[in-house]
Amino acid sequence: MKPGIFAAVAATLLLFASTAFAWSPTLRNTDGRGYKYKVACGASTLNSSIGSNTTTTISSYKNCTLQVVGVGDVKLKENMKCEIKSARLSCR
């Protein structure tokens, strides 16, 4: 493969990979402590955690619920921005 073609293919793949997360919800934790959270999608559940003062992307969101343990839960939607602040969960 010629270098120019390889670069074009690589750039296209990178573009598609970055847009896959463009509409995914985010969870931001502005508290000084970490939290455990669950993303439940039907019969499948992802258990994870978020550290203090960090943001993470939630890749699965269609028909899913986000539960931050001890804080709250919400039905996830495309491009939703959720934040944990003062031990409370808010999303927009």
Mean pLDDT, to the nearest integer, reads 85
- How many strands, what sense, and barrel or not for the largest sheet? 4 strands, mixed
- Report Rg: 16 Å
Distance linking N and C termini: 46 Å
Molecular structure report:
By secondary structure, this protein is of the alpha+beta class. The chain has one domain (23-91). The protein is built from one helix and eight strands. The chain has one helix spanning 3-20; strands at residues 26-29, 35-41, 44-50, 54-57, 64-68, 72-75, 81-85, 88-91.
Topology:
Layout: H1 3-20, E1 26-29, E2 35-41, E3 44-50, E4 54-57, E5 64-68, E6 72-75, E7 81-85, E8 88-91
Parallel strand pairs: 1-7
Antiparallel strand pairs: 1-4, 2-3, 2-5, 5-6, 7-8
How would you summarize what this structure contains?
The protein has 92 residues and is an alpha+beta fold.
